[in-house]
Design brief:
Membrane topology: Single-pass type I membrane protein
Largest sheet: 7 strands, mixed
Low-confidence stretches: 1-17, 337-350
Structural class: alpha+beta
Radius of gyration: 47 Å
Subcellular location: Cell membrane
Distance between the termini: 134 Å
Subunit structure: Interacts with SELPLG/PSGL1 and PODXL2 through the sialyl Lewis X epitope. SELPLG sulfation appears not to be required for this interaction.
Bound molecules: 2-acetamido-2-deoxy-beta-D-glucopyranose
Order of helices and strands: HEHEHEEEEEEEEEEEEEEEEEEEHH
Family: Belongs to the selectin/LECAM family.
Shape: rod-shaped
CATH topology of the largest domain: Mannose-Binding Protein A, Chain A
Strand content: 25-35%
Number of domains: 3
Keywords: Calcium, Cell adhesion, Cell membrane, Disulfide bond, EGF-like domain, Glycoprotein, Lectin, Membrane, Metal-binding, Repeat, Signal, Sushi, Transmembrane, Transmembrane helix
Number of strands: 21
Number of helices: 5
CATH architecture of the largest domain: Roll
Amino acid sequence: MKWTLILLLGISLAETTLGWTYSYSETTMNWTMARQWCQTSFTDMVVIQSQEENDYLVSQLPNRSRSPYYWIGITKAHKNEAWTWIGNNSTWIGEHSWAANEPNNNHSTEFCVEIYVNRSPNRGKWNDEKCANPKYAVCYRAQCSSTSCERGRCQETINNTTCLCEPGFKGDRCETAEQCPVLNHTNFSGGRMNCSHPIGPHSYNSTCEFRCDEGSQLIGEDRIRCDHSGQWTASIPVCTAVECPPLSRPDNGYLSCSGGNQVFNTTCHFKCQLGHLIIGLSSVTCGVSGVWSGPRPACASYKQALLGVAGCGAFSILSCICFCWMKHRKRKKVSQVRQPEEATSSAVSG
Ligand SMILES: *[C@@H]1O[C@H](CO)[C@@H](O)[C@H](O)[C@H]1NC(C)=O
Ligand SMILES: *[C@@H]1O[C@H](CO)[C@@H](O)[C@H](O)[C@H]1NC(C)=O
Ligand SMILES: *[C@@H]1O[C@H](CO)[C@@H](O)[C@H](O)[C@H]1NC(C)=O
Ligand SMILES: *[C@@H]1O[C@H](CO)[C@@H](O)[C@H](O)[C@H]1NC(C)=O
Ligand SMILES: *[C@@H]1O[C@H](CO)[C@@H](O)[C@H](O)[C@H]1NC(C)=O
Ligand SMILES: *[C@@H]1O[C@H](CO)[C@@H](O)[C@H](O)[C@H]1NC(C)=O
Ligand SMILES: *[C@@H]1O[C@H](CO)[C@@H](O)[C@H](O)[C@H]1NC(C)=O
Ligand SMILES: *[C@@H]1O[C@H](CO)[C@@H](O)[C@H](O)[C@H]1NC(C)=O
Ligand SMILES: *[C@@H]1O[C@H](CO)[C@@H](O)[C@H](O)[C@H]1NC(C)=O
Ligand SMILES: *[C@@H]1O[C@H](CO)[C@@H](O)[C@H](O)[C@H]1NC(C)=O
Ligand SMILES: *[C@@H]1O[C@H](CO)[C@@H](O)[C@H](O)[C@H]1NC(C)=O
Ligand SMILES: *[C@@H]1O[C@H](CO)[C@@H](O)[C@H](O)[C@H]1NC(C)=O
């Protein structure tokens, strides 16, 4: 009992994987009626797309010794039109499809085609005929349905159906999305990762965005996608700390920085040798944008420092004198407009 059930189930499963099946009528009718009959009871009148299909069809039909034979689904509307298959407008005709001396358009309105299934050398060949003549109908039933393939197009073949998958999908029924290598937070450090998975985890069209923490910069793409072949569109980016331009120790001074590299958040302290005075900040920090918080200081000996102060003082005094003199000269110039040359020479000698 159990075995019978399994056997029955097995047969029905096998049948669902078959491609199209052929059927034929027991009565004759004109081409239009034959097609109508096929469309009512099955999918449509047969369409042949290769010599192999042609031969297979003939092998499935009962032999007939003479006309009428079977209508097939190729036709034309006018004398000068190309023979066209119903359904998808294909114009396939094999090298050996027509019987000898056919199509002859004997009655000048032979716009339909029958297939010979006799035992002569013409077996399996085609003949153009008047569409009003009565012949048997031969039809096919499609096995493909809208649910045959999930993410693809169903293609029928003899004894089989095949799903032609959309890019990014695979499987007998195109039911699985292509997968990319798993990518989670263990693959990316130093920042934040935000992934979306519209179809499946780490699958076709999954997208990850990357952002680095403050003070580090992203090297690589900030957005990668799982492509239709199961590859990420780019490698995972990395975050590297922002670097500040290297600092060197000041003349007659020392430099000590936290950490080895002079990168974001590093603070560097400056000290001067004994007998020297620091001119400027005693420490600077590397900022978010890779710029030190201030300029490097200088170390000056006390003597230099004093001289510097003195020099500064002297410079101030000189500047003051200069300024006063110029102001004075300007006033003089205004009062001597009539003798400019004399004024100039006097200024030079003065
Ligand atoms: C076939 O051709 C006819 C007439 O040119 C057109 O109406 C029809 O849509 C076509 N069918 C297909 C499946 O391309
Ligand atoms: C027409 O349909 C048949 C059967 O589905 C297929 O094999 C053939 O490639 C199609 N031809 C064209 C031109 O689309
Ligand atoms: C053309 O048709 C006539 C009768 O309608 C028939 O006698 C003749 O044999 C046909 N010729 C061919 C080549 O089929
Ligand atoms: C039909 O005729 C062919 C060719 O003579 C032969 O091979 C085949 O067995 C016949 N089929 C039937 C069902 O009689
Ligand atoms: C086919 O037969 C039907 C019914 O017998 C008829 O109405 C129709 O005109 C015929 N068509 C052709 C092209 O002969
Ligand atoms: C289709 O399947 C039938 C039965 O299994 C077999 O006899 C036939 O040769 C097959 N045809 C092709 C073209 O594979
Ligand atoms: C159907 O066709 C597919 C692809 O061409 C092939 O892999 C598969 O084995 C075929 N199945 C049968 C039952 O012939
Ligand atoms: C992420 O890391 C795991 C384990 O370390 C590895 O197997 C996987 O391939 C990595 N993913 C990518 C996209 O490199
Ligand atoms: C990340 O991926 C690795 C393998 O690629 C896996 O072993 C690990 O459990 C995953 N971690 C999380 C949190 O999903
Ligand atoms: C991740 O990205 C999605 C879409 O771009 C957005 O809506 C969401 O807020 C983001 N989540 C985080 C934690 O950034
Ligand atoms: C995958 O993404 C592309 C581009 O963003 C889009 O055109 C396509 O429709 C998506 N495919 C699926 C199956 O969602
Ligand atoms: C930078 O330094 C501040 C204060 O020392 C600390 O709070 C912060 O976490 C540090 N940031 C990084 C990225 O090291």
